[in-house]
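Annotated sample (chain length 189).
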Amino acid sequence: MATQNNTQVRDGLGALVTRRSYDKDGARADAPFIPEIGETSDSAWDGTSSAGLIGILKAIWTKLGGIGLKVGASALSVTNPMFVSLSNGASGVTPVTGSLSATGYSAPFTPIPGRPFNFTATGTFVGTLVLERSFDGGVTMVALTALGSPLYTFTGPFSESYTEDESGVQYFIHCTSYTSGTINYRMSA
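Output written by the structure step:
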């Protein structure tokens, strides 16, 4: 019959964690040292940690904190333990820019799959713009939709981003109606 023996152990920061050992048929085997949620106690040490999972994560991060990881200009630390965003650096894709002063399409932009790209229109104009894409080199244009309704339709200046997962898809800003003004557009990765 297996029996369980729990022993309280402190990690390097003094947080309480549990080490479990099991006896089976007279042999003793220690399980891996696994901190368990809810077994950290603020009163057990200097009071600078949080109880439960947060305290355990702080203890683990403090042990790993000496490796000097950085995200942008921010060093990862106990108080900044998460990646907010990762920068892939410059994409190497030339931005597409231009202007529209009638109905029609922008020049095509082909984004890098899996990487967000920006699409922007500025200027003083009266018109309707729709972000569209083509899977066949610009022969057939299709608006991005959700449940059949266009996602990106604008009647004024905008700046948005989107991520395409498929290689070779081209994007266009389509001016579907135009009354006046100049529409300056830019698409970039």
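Annotation: Residues 1-11, 15-47, 66-73 have pLDDT under 50 and may be disordered.
Annotation: The longest strand covers residues 170-181.
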